[in-house]
What does this fold into?
Amino acid sequence: MYNWLSEKVKVKKTPSGLTPTIERYIGNLGEKCKEAIASRVNNIVTKVLSFEKDHSDASNQKKLKDKHNQIVSLYLRVLEDLLIQEEKKTKSPNYFEILNNDSFHKALIACSIETVNFVMNSTNVSFVKLLDICECQAFEFWRIIGSFMKFDPQMPYPIKKNLHDLELKILMCLAWKKDSIVHQLIKNLADESNANSNQMSTIYSN
It folds into this structure.
């Protein structure tokens, strides 16, 4: 797993902190989009590592810096792949929706952190706490798991299994918490169903 991770985090970065490929896809979206993507991932990773440092004996600054770079690089690697896949599967890819979706990025960052923590056998940040620090809904994390696992067919089985276990945990428990977006989605579906029923009743009554 460590060899796989070491290979995946070998990415070339531009002065903006992104990669040439990601910058190409950003295109006309401009500097604000670049800054938002770079600052978001660095800020979130810094918060998570600060929490980890406060709750462990980890005081080696070099280790923390290396881990920070691993997480950011893995996130960029997966983001690159998702953008490439988007380009391949449709004639009119919607890069704007991907690159400007805050919830998507937070979920992808959380998934990258969880993967690095799993590979490094770091248990100082629980999964629930990780979602909290990343300000990521469990449902949003669940939505990105499938794409994350598919970005590399050579991903080691233990990493995939860990993500599958988290997927089950979300479906069985976390996605149904009171503040979960799932409740709002269900309400929206119910409202839409009621509206359609009322419309049909009006048609038949006339």
Q: What stands out?
A: The chain has ten helices and no strands. The first helix runs from residue 2 to 8. Residues 2 and 205 are 67 Å apart (CA to CA). The chain has a mean pLDDT of 84.
